[in-house]
């Protein structure tokens, strides 16, 4: 498990949408000899400073943010009211441990409130709670203590407090934010596998774009697409597994079955030409992929494919169980297969292969 330390560092990093600073630091520490640039939205660009204007450009996308909350207000008892940043249900947030950022940029632990069963009526026990009813308890007893002693104010980010764990015996990882730190790690690993000399020698520019604010509407990727102006893009994602939702026959995102290649989801329809190229590369490399047609969900592909004059996008998803909760489970092998498939695909890709992205006279 060559990249397990990188995966651990990325999973443990705190990065609610708009507050991806700790993830930025991990990417910076693992950029190798490639150039890394940051824009005003905290989006990162790997190897973008080396762009050759005479070559087509392929962008490897991933997003650095994770689902979290923002402190909305502080009540008189010292409880924090919160607003979701990204998709949460009350069932997955209630009674869980979180980390709240303070003014001096450190994080303190908190628990999402629940009413003890001892005080609940029979009717209350049957009724689901609403997300709006959850507050965060940092162990303070007054509003003044929260503000003056803890240094927590309105507008601070909140993230799950989970720590990464790997089971060496079966190669399964458990942790938070695999959506989409698996993708961030995949981009870094692809660049590392190729190395600076081989990347420079490619007949196209290879740019890694690490986007912010995906969980609140694919926002960072609008900017990265604009800036990089790629001819094609590959989106890496930690996509929800359907191991338990569907049968083995109908499942399209099963853990340990290889990367999921998406044909559609609620945000885009993939380029059939580009997807066919990925399928051919997977057959040549002997790497199993899972073709997926998703009804809901979405990735940065939604923003990228309509950027500029239209960008063909292929999405490679690494199946993650329990997306948008504190504890996700993923297989290291699916991550490695995604990296290996991408490296094999890039090594065979020629400048002529980008012809399909150009405007044609019919
Ligand atoms: Zn997500």
Kindly summarize this structure in a few lines.
The protein has 362 residues and is of the alpha+beta class. It contains eleven helices and 18 strands. It has two domains: 4-66 and 176-357, Aminopeptidase (3-Layer(aba) Sandwich); 68-160, Elongation Factor Tu (Ef-tu), domain 3, CATH 2.40.30.
Could you describe the 3D structure shown?
This protein is an alpha+beta fold. It has 2 domains: 4-66 and 176-357, Zn peptidases (Aminopeptidase); 68-160, Peptidase M42, domain 2 (Elongation Factor Tu (Ef-tu), domain 3, Beta Barrel), CATH 2.40.30. It is 28% helix and 25% strand. It has helices at 4-12, 21-29, 90-93, 122-126, 143-150, 178-194, 196-201, 219-228, 272-285, 301-304, 332-348; strands at 36-38, 44-46, 57-63, 68-74, 79-85, 97-101, 107-112, 135-137, 157-160, 165-167, 172-175, 205-211, 232-240, 260-265, 268-269, 290-293, 313-320, 328-331. α6 (178-194) crosses α11 and α9 (272-285) packs across α11 (332-348). The longest helix has 17 residues, at 178-194. The protein is globular. The structure holds zinc ion (ZN). Residues 67, 179, 215, 324 line the site of zinc ion.
């Amino acid at each position: 498990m060559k990249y397990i330390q990188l995966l651990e560092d990325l999973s443990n990093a705190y990065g609610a949408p708009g507050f991806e600073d700790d993830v930025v630091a991990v990417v910076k520490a693992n950029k190798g000899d490639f150039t890394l640039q940051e824009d005003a939205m905290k989006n990162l660009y790997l190897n973008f400073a080396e762009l050759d204007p005479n070559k087509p450009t392929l962008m490897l996308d991933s997003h650095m943010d994770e689902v979290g909350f923002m402190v909305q207000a502080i009540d008189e008892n010292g409880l924090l009211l919160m607003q979701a940043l990204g998709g949460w249900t009350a069932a997955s947030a209630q009674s869980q441990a979180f980390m709240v950022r303070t003014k001096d940029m450190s994080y303190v632990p908190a628990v999402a409130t629940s009413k003890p069963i001892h005080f609940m009526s029979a009717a209350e026990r049957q009724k689901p709670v609403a997300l709006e009813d959850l507050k965060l308890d940092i162990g303070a007893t007054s509003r003044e203590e929260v503000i003056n002693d803890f240094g927590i104010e309105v507008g601070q980010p909140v993230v799950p407090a989970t720590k990464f764990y790997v089971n060496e015996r079966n190669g399964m990882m458990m942790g938070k934010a695999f959506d989409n730190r698996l993708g961030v790690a995949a981009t870094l690993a692809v660049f590392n596998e190729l190395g600076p000399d081989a990347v420079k020698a490619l007949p196209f520019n290879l740019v890694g774009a690490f986007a912010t604010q995906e969980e609140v509407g694919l926002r960072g990727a609008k900017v990265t697409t604009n800036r990089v102006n790629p001819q094609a893009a590959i989106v890496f994602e930690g996509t929800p597994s359907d191991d338990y939702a569907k049968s083995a026959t109908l499942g399209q995102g099963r853990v340990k079955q290889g990367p999921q290649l998406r044909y559609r989801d609620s945000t885009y329809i993939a380029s059939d030409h580009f997807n066919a190229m990925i399928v051919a590369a997977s057959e040549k490399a002997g790497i199993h992929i899972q073709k997926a047609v998703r009804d809901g969900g979405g990735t940065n592909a939604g923003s990228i494919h309509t950027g500029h004059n239209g960008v063909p996008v292929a999405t490679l998803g690494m199946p993650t169980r329990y997306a948008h909760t504190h504890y996700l489970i993923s297989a290291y092998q699916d991550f490695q297969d995604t990296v290996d498939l991408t490296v094999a695909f890039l090594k065979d890709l020629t400048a002529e292969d980008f012809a399909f992205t150009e405007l044609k006279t019919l």
